[in-house]
């Protein structure tokens, strides 16, 4: 998302002001998640978190390059709530059934795999975006040269 802001000539401070609303709600909600874990099944909390996160994505369906920072306020807050409800239950689920002596190793392995998955996903999406951009650029240039209207 920060790349889109950079393309709209936002400076680092302006980008931070927009994206801070993704982190600040999590600071409030994450400490409350252990209480939810004690009262509800972690799979239910995970489902609710993913559903809220998905809703925030659907709130961005109609965005274009004409949108600015203020239009991201509500979707970022909704996304932050969803993320807060996703991360802790994932850790609980992945470390369930692990003995206390191995809990640190299991948690570290889980976090490493999550980071590796995020990095691999980011790399794949960046590659896909680059390839699609090249494809569409070639199509536009070819049609421009041939004079084809479509």
Sequence of secondary-structure elements? HHHHHH
Number of strands: 0
Query: Which segments are poorly predicted (pLDDT under 50) over 5 or more consecutive residues?
Result: none
Give the overall shape: extended
> How many domain units?
2
- What is the C-alpha radius of gyration, as a whole number of Å? 20 Å
Query: How many DSSP H or I helices?
Result: 6
Kindly state the mean pLDDT as a whole number? 85
Binned, the helix content reads: over 70%
Strand content: under 5%
Sheet with most strands: none
N-to-C CA distance: 31 Å
How would you sum up this structure, described in words?
With 150 residues, the chain is mostly helical. The chain has two domains: 1-96; 100-150. Helix content is 77%, strand content 0%. The protein has six helices and no strands. α2 (12-29) crosses α5 and α4 (42-58) runs antiparallel to α5. The model has no long low-confidence stretch (mean pLDDT 85).
Set down the secondary structure blueprint.
Layout: H1 2-7, H2 12-29, H3 33-39, H4 42-58, H5 73-95, H6 103-146
Helix pairs in contact: 2-5, 4-5
């Amino acid at each position: 998302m920060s790349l889109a802001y950079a393309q709209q000539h936002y400076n680092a401070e302006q980008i931070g002001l927009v994206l801070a609303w993704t982190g600040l709600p999590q600071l409030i909600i994450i400490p409350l998640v252990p209480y939810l874990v004690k009262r509800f099944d972690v799979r239910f909390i995970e489902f609710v978190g993913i559903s809220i996160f998905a809703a925030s994505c659907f709130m961005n369906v109609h965005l274009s390059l004409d949108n600015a920072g203020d239009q991201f306020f509500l979707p970022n807050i909704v996304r932050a709530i969803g993320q807060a409800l996703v991360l802790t239950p994932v850790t609980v689920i992945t470390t369930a059934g692990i003995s206390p002596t191995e809990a640190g190793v299991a948690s570290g392995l889980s976090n490493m795999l999550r980071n590796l998955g995020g990095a691999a996903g980011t790399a794949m999406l960046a590659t896909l975006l680059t390839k699609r951009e090249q494809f569409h650029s070639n199509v536009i240039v070819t049609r421009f040269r041939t004079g084809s209207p479509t």
